[in-house]
Amino acid sequence: MSDEALKVSFPKRAGAALKDAFLQEALTIATTKFIELRRESFAGFPQGEALRDRARGIKEATLQRLDFYLGQLADSVERLGGRVHWAATGEEARETVLRLCRDRGVRMAVKSKSMATEEIDLNEALERAGVTPVETDLGEYIIQLAHEKPSHIIAPAIHKTKGQVAELFSKELHGQFAADPEVLTAVARKALREKFLQADMGITGANFAVAETGTVVLVTNEGNGRMVTSLPRIHVAVMGMEKVIPSMTDLMVFLAILARSATGQKLSSYTTLVRGPRQPGELEGPEEFHLILMDNGRSRQIAGTLREALYCLRCGACLNVCPVYRQIGGHAYGYTYPGPIGILLTAMLKGNASVKDLAHASSLCGACKDVCPVRIDIPRMLIELREQLDREKIAPWTERTVFTLAALILKSPALFRAAAAAGRLLQRPFLRNGRVRSLPLLFARWTATRDLPPVASKTFTERWKEMK
Amino acid sequence: MKASLMITCLGDLLFPEVGVAMVTLLRRLGVEVDFPEGQTCCGMPLFNSGYHAGAAEVAARTVRLFEASEHVVVPSGSCAWMVKTEFPGLLKHDPALRAAAERLAAKTRELSQFLVEVLRVDRIESSFKGTVTYHDSCHLLRGLGESAAARKLLKSLRGVELVELPEADQCCGFGGSFSVRLPDVSTAILDKKLANVERTGADCLVACDAGCLMQMGGGLSRRGSRVRALHLAQILAGEDKG
To answer: Between A404, A458, A464, which is nearest B35 by CB?
Structure first.
């Protein structure tokens, strides 16, 4: 999201999302569907639970020796004739792509869906440099036409209804198209086919990269990833460095649970394995292959609070089940990665100050942890993040004062009793039929929409004396 | 058998009738109930918002209060979760306290779990009559892995019909301070929950957590619903005993 949009506070952005009827409709339909599909998929897959444990173990072990596996990956890729570029920051990753475009006269780049390139605002940078980026994943294509950002990790246009897409296509692609997914897909397919043939460069992310073999793995449902990596003369893959895994055997473990978690499929329609540029004797594939290994704040967290967030497979399951995400959608979060995992990734990439409000955009219900294929303990990390905000004095002083007072009261039964007595007295003017229906100040945030039970005329502690 | 009641802050101040119902019920089942005095709160509001030094102090005094107890019974799944999973970690810097916290964790149960796991109750006699639906509180369901105990007890009641709540496992939107930090989002989540509750046609919405009951009960009474939000203990004891 632009800096301009971020000037509106998170609660206001969330409030606007709640009032957007189209968004509400689209979100409810899509997330409910995703939840059902995932549940059915794992219900018929008894070995799934053990595979989730194993996948978590692989991520953990790989992080322990990340430098080794990255070195091995780089060697493997270069042995195949590919080039590896190390990028300490998003800026460096972006510059590497731009330099390749400049040096090789690239005018148009087709892209397969990639959150890593969203993370570094690559499209905007390409446009400024005179290179036309074309998103070829249907969802990404829709939001590119609408000049928006993805609002879900795997379903970037989840916030749009089919009616809105029909309207958008009719306007941007000059025609009159029905709000029928099949018709709209055919329209996009035709428009994109030409771009694939014109493009000089294909840009992808990577779901996994296998250290032993130098294989970059793309998991897609539209086959566009395969076209992006085989038709243009140059293929550039941009990946966060935590995406490396040791072996092809490990890959099988992840593939068995990734699509099930994301869309409820056993496997996605296409699993594309890319190994370097076209080899002598091969009929297709790019002349050049470049792999950009991006740090951008990740290595700092290997021994940090957010370590487990580096296990993330980007399946989006935690978004679908999150009661907050389901209400406000992805854009309200304000950054590249939305939802519960997105809050952690935003803190990782942009620093703690950027999640001052977002860290509290969770009821800590734990649904995210439950569905995460690698069992990332998101609620725990959110609590730890909140603890840091308090310690680093990023949390507002008013809040810190309230909680310091609360701690004093909860530590002392005498003060606790006094607070109860004060509450009983102060609530009197606001009581209606035994319920507190409106309160001033901070309490109004509750009573605007909900009644509150009054502080009892006799607390349990007082009633116990009669019950002994 | 002896058991100590951990009433929790919300139970003490806002829902004393739940505590009374618990005592009535437990005594009827032959449990000798005691109530260590000087209780305040488990410290979860401090902990969840990141104020861990304060939470640790509150935890330490709670651990000491219940040192002599044989069993500890809690009306809220979230507070039981706090005691069972977070107290030992919060007190890890003091080995003696940590050990005491681990002993407390082991002997603490949320009410429905206490009834089914410890007392091995499989049917209950209660004067309560009506159609009820059950909301799975997040910390009881996902934190403590319990979804069966309360349902089993409710089904055992002669005058009660249990209707399953659609999306029973979804959060009610309370989330402690979340409910006032983002009141609009919290209420939107609540509205979905209450629409599901009303769809069941039940007279009564049952939960095992004072936080959820405050949220859902507050929403029901604000919209003038005929559905009442009650704690499991109130149903099992017969609500007039509250």
So the answer is: A464
